[in-house]
Specification:
- It is a single chain.
- By secondary structure, the protein is of the alpha/beta class.
- The chain has a domain at 3-120: N-utilizing Substance Protein B Homolog, Chain A.
- It is built from 20 helices and twelve strands.
- It has helices at 3-21, 25-34, 41-55, 58-67, 74-84, 90-97, 101-110, 122-125, 133-140, 144-150, 168-177, 204-207, 216-225, 242-250, 264-276, 293-297, 330-345, 368-377, 386-389, 404-407, and strands at 157-161, 182-184, 191-194, 211-213, 232-235, 256-261, 282-286, 302-308, 349-359, 381-384, 400-402, 412-419.
- The strands form two sheets. Strands 5, 6, 7, 8, 9, 10, 11 and 12 form an eight-stranded mixed beta sheet that branches.
- Strand 6 (256-261), helix 15 (264-276) and strand 7 form a beta-alpha-beta unit.
- The structure holds S-adenosylmethionine.
Amino acid sequence: MTPAAARLQAILDLFTATEAERRPVDAVTSAWLRGRRDIGDEDRGTILDTLYDLLRHRARLTWWLEKFGREANARNQFLAWLVLAERRPAEEIKRLLGEEPQDGSLLNKLHGHTIEHPEMPEAVLLECPAWAEPSLRARFGDRFAPEMNALLTPPPFDLRVNPIKATREGALKQLAKLGLPAEPTPLAPHGIRLAEKFALSRLPALKTGEVEIQDEGSQLVAQLVDAQPGDRVVDFCAGAGGKTLAMAAQMNNKGRIIACDVNEGRLKRCSERVRNAGMHNVETKLLGSESDKWVKRKKLGFDRVLIDAPCSGTGTWRRNPDTRWRDEGGLEHLTALQSRILASAARLVKEGGRLVYATCSMLPEENEAQVEAFLKAFPAFKLVPLAEVAPDLPQTGDYLSLTPAQHDTDGFFAAVMTRTPA
Ligand SMILES: C[S@@+](CC[C@H](N)C(=O)[O-])C[C@H]1O[C@@H](n2cnc3c(N)ncnc32)[C@H](O)[C@@H]1O
């Protein structure tokens, strides 16, 4: 097989696995790359970029296949991509992929067309899945199209400098020496934005824990918790610890963070990252569920509680383009889980303490509506307007509400609340 044919086959294999196994694309690609450590940076870049691009065009490719009465399976979508987007001649595709005669007629039908067609509905052109369209239209109104278009662009590559081990100036100099142009992020004080993507192996500071990969929006959510040195903090949905690490650094390694989650694997990864970052003020706690007995035992025990709730992830569609086509469990299941988590984790907040509820979703049901329902049901808590706690952040009402189109971050929502003294 020629190198060009091998690249195409790799893209098709990865796309097929993402579609068929219903696994997140980053998990599929990480597993694939682990078995191919000898693959060159350029090949890796081409394969991953094309795979993600393909996922960002899935609705349009499906529209074309349905128009010609073909099954929208991974192989047909890929063939359509090669003709419509890469403008590859049928002969070349046949030579590289060795496709069967029935595919030949599909290639001929697609030949001469472009990926967009005037008859495509707007939701297809904007790759907006039916399950999220009504909410996103309600949320954005006239801004629906620009916001959806922004979600179709590749995300910026952001780092967060770990102030326990490095300074932003030092990290910027190191990047410049490595030939990786970068600049400070506009809003987050420890953030760095790379001008272009690069192979992670090129940056030793990642291995030494001097920097972490973290979107600027995620850094800002951690900042809103305002964890102080000496505080007792719970990161209730800590996952692999992105925000835990940012808060631990903010606390200058003093005080205590309990990183909780129901997923043992993610907490294990969190512990590894904590060690690598040189943090000593974090412990992990595996919960059986959001209403684990531990929560009751520790009620009113913490200065700060962050709930980075499991959500639809609509704000991260730039980064995880496959998730828009997964409505696993449905939105109703997620919103019910979010309100159970809020009700339970809020018990941990002491009088005068702060509760931050955050999602990487842009759907009002998962955000404003959750907070409003919680405040109504738990009058001991009151909302602290964003202008009071973070006047320098973009003000869009009482909440932090970031979108890729407006702030060039992932879409993030955060509400700051406090438990009023009895
Ligand atoms: C948005 S992710 C967290 C990301 C993480 N905070 C970060 O910054 O890297 C949501 C997390 O909630 C966890 N989760 C799901 N259901 C939960 C529950 N019932 N109680 C606590 N955590 C839960 C998931 O395992 C997942 O790790």
